[in-house]
Each structure stands twice: as C-alpha cells, then as structure tokens.
Amino acid sequence: MFATLSSPLFVTAWASGTATGLGLFAVVGAQSAFILRQGLMRAHLLSVMAVCALIDAVFIFASVSGLRALTQWFPWLTTAVLWFGVAFLSWYALQSACRAWRAQGGLAAARDVVPSRRAAILGALGFSLLNPHFWLDMVVVGSLAHGFDDARMAFAAGALTASLLWLAVLGIGSRLFAPFFSSALAWRVLDGVIAVVMASLAASLALKGV
Length: 210
Prior knowledge:
Layout: H1 8-25, H2 30-41, H3 45-73, H4 76-101, H5 107-112, H6 117-129, H7 132-145, H8 152-176, H9 184-209
Helix pairs in contact: 1-8, 2-6, 2-8, 2-9, 3-6, 3-7, 3-8, 4-9, 7-8
C-alpha cells in the first residue's frame, strides 16, 4: 500500500525527490541547451517542452518501477545508448559549430530558418533518449526511490516536479534573454558555446566507452 497524500512519509519522500531531481536536472547540458535555443528562436517551444516533460514523466515512474532491472537483464543496452549518444552529440556539435562560423543576422534571421515542428520534436526525443546522462539520472532516481518503500511513488512525483520546474525556468529564461540575441554576434557566441558543450559531452562519453 502506497503512502497516502497526507502522510508525513509522503511529504518527506516528495521533498527528497524534488531536491534530488533539481540536483540532477538543473544543469545546462545537451537537452537544456537545445530547449534554450528553441525558445530564443520561438521555434515550437511549447511542443518541445511538452515532449520533454512527457518523456521525463514516463521514465521517472518507469525507473521507480524497475528500469534498473531492465539494464541488468540487457547489459548491452547501456553500451548501445552510450555510442548512439556520442554520435548524436557529435553531429549536433558540428551543426552548432557551423552556425557559429557563419553569421546569421541575429534573432530575426534565426526565426526565418525555424525548423519544422516535426524536426523540433525529433530533436527533443534525441536529446532525451539518446543522451546517456538521461538514462543515468533515471537509474539514480529509481535507486534512491526504493529507499522510501511504500512512498517511492511520492519520491518519483517529487522528481517529476523538479523536472517541470526546470523546464519552466528554461522556457521563461529563453524569453527573457531574447532581447540580448538581436545581433548576429550573440547568436554566434551562443552556438559556439553549445558546440563546445556538446563536443565535450561526446568526448567524455566516448572516453567512458573505450
């Protein structure tokens, strides 16, 4: 029997899940950088955030329900995701580096080359499901949740709360910073930083896989 919503154990588990989630998710990694760029371009931001939130919700609760056991049954799955992630991050780093090399004319020009909704959603899927750090976070959440026994789903709810809060911060932040990206130089700097972040993540993952 799961802990009831009013029980102190539920509140403790939820708060712990929220704190853990913020510690894991509130970083400017691959997914966050992608969301920020979509928000600055106003390119299907709500669709991207909805997809990311849905993926987080499904896999947070799945991890608490036994995702860790799945990776133990199929150990090759971790390696496969790692190398797909390296390839995906390397490709996006190259794309960002090319954009940084070529001046695009600022925010107005960036909006003129907005990707389709389908491309944006596929990007959101890729930066989540092909990101080995995403899977590591899910395993950590699942492992810690089981320390709360009957209140483990409350821990999962807290982790999801943290995810939604961070997505909201990214969405609002991208709108607040939009005026600073009226120049081509600002976009080139942003894309250069994204390229470095993606390439660094790809390199670190590749070293772990060797």
